[in-house]
Amino acid sequence: MVHPYTRFRIRLARHAVAQLASRLRSSAEIAMLVLGPMTLGLLAFAALPAMLAAAEPLPFALPLLCLHGVAMSLPIVLLRPRVVPADVAAWLRPLPVPPARLLRAAAAVAALLTAPLALAYAASLAIWLVQDPGWMAPLRAVGGTVFSFLLTLACATGLLVRGAALPQRSQQAPADAAAATCPPMPRAGWFYLWRQLFWLPLWRGAAAGARQGALLAAAIGAGVLWMLGPQALPRVAGAIVTSILLVLLAHEADQALRRQLARVRGLAAGWPVDVAALAWHARALVLLGIALAPAAVTATGALAGAWHGTAGRFYLLLAWSVPPLLVLTPPFTARGRMALVALAIMLLCATGSQLWN
Amino acid sequence: MELNPAVDIKDLAFHFATRSVFYGLNLQLGPGLTWLRGRNGRGKTTLLKLLGGALAPSRGHIRLDGLDSATDALAYRRLSFYCGGEAPALDWLTAREWLELHLALYLDADRAVLDRHLDAFHVADIGAQPVTGLSLGQYKKLQLAFALALPARLLLVDEPFNGLDVDAVGVLEEVLARRTRAGTSCIVLTSHLDLRIAPTVTLDLDTQPGVL
């Protein structure tokens, strides 16, 4: 008989997974349509890192397998706020649950969450065992993969226990937080309102700002590398990575803006401020931020002489018009938006890969 | 602008997705303190939000000094302020940033009065704390200190005594009594507790025609 606490935690996890699946359904449909055969091929490679590590001599194999096992548990860090939402954790923590029960419940939830990984490993192992390449020692490959998976499961359990257990005792007294409540200088203006209502929420208690920052840096880095054309990076790979990052950056920034606009509209309903004008200013500033990436690609491309041909000019036109297109078009449906994103990626990739042909 | 504020509600209808709250509500509110009473779920907070412009009527009009809450929305909102809500909105801001933002939105707030109220409520030194880290009473005091520093013609105060300490209740009652006597603003207040200050008008939604 499963204890009600464990049953509740499993139900919570299933609900979170179902919610996530419904959110990702539209994107998954488009991704499967565009990248279907490639996705199936990737499945065969799921267990490859563990099998390759297991083929090394034991002193190298063990640390590599441990690293792989721990790394594969990291998505649980992202999933944990969904599996144990903050409002649920607040009343879950004071419940008189013995540590052993907490551990068992966390292990059950971890098993549920890592089950797809186990299935992918099993399919991948089966494929490679049938292929039986020369470098693979079948027993060590199976043992290594199982070891890596068990380590992932253990780490996932540990992460979930931390999420639902009593909060950690704070080690350090905070610095004196006393500060005047009344601000010294009155401020006003659209830029100030944008900063308080759209910029700060990206960074405080949210990962959206860091995500956009990372995407922006990656898009600029990939674009510059593509244009410089080092020996190790084929031009086509540079075009594909840069194009994907440019579109994902615009999509991510647009989604974050739409979410925050929905929040602000509710809050600002009674304020003496023109919310529609505020929304236009927010959109303009988001576009200005995103523009850094195409600007960097344009500038380095000009130095590398990339924009002389028709493909170059068409790529520039696309790279500059995709962000406003995503930000200024209505959201349609989730599926429609994902189709637009996929189309933009495909057009940019196709044009970008023709640049040096 | 008239010396005495006047609120005119005509043929007001408002529906949530699952139920109707008002249908054909007619009210006139004058200067002074209006004590809005009624059982839970009668629509006290909804009426305050409608009066504050945060909700839009499905039908009918709300006018403050002749300004319509729907057609003259910005001008209307400059003259009114809704003070309520116990869960902090703008949960990414600190207390000082919260106040700074509201000062930027309502440019005619009296900063000297605001300073005085923050002191009187003992919340003058919580500026660095995030609003989500404030206690219920501290958040309420922050909102009230700001609301009472506004020259609002229509001040809407939802359950102001919830979570306040005894000293703060005394301060609030004194300020409300003073503003009521001055008669320059229309204060609409909801409270399940009996008021220790005399309201100008008591409005009971349980017996009011047009409340469903």
UniProtKB/TrEMBL annotation, chain B:
Q: Which UniProt keywords apply?
A: ATP-binding, Cell membrane, Membrane, Nucleotide-binding, Transport
Tell me the superkingdom of the source.
Bacteria
In terms of SUPFAM superfamilies, this protein maps to: P-loop containing nucleoside triphosphate hydrolases
* Classification via InterPro entries: AAA+_ATPase, ABC_transporter-like_ATP-bd, ABC_Transporter_VariousFunc, P-loop_NTPase
Annotated ABC transporter domain ranges read 7-205
Offer an example of a GO molecular function term for this protein. Answer: ATP binding
Q: What is this protein called?
A: ATP-binding cassette domain-containing protein
Its lineage opens with: Bacteria, Pseudomonadati, Pseudomonadota, Betaproteobacteria, Burkholderiales
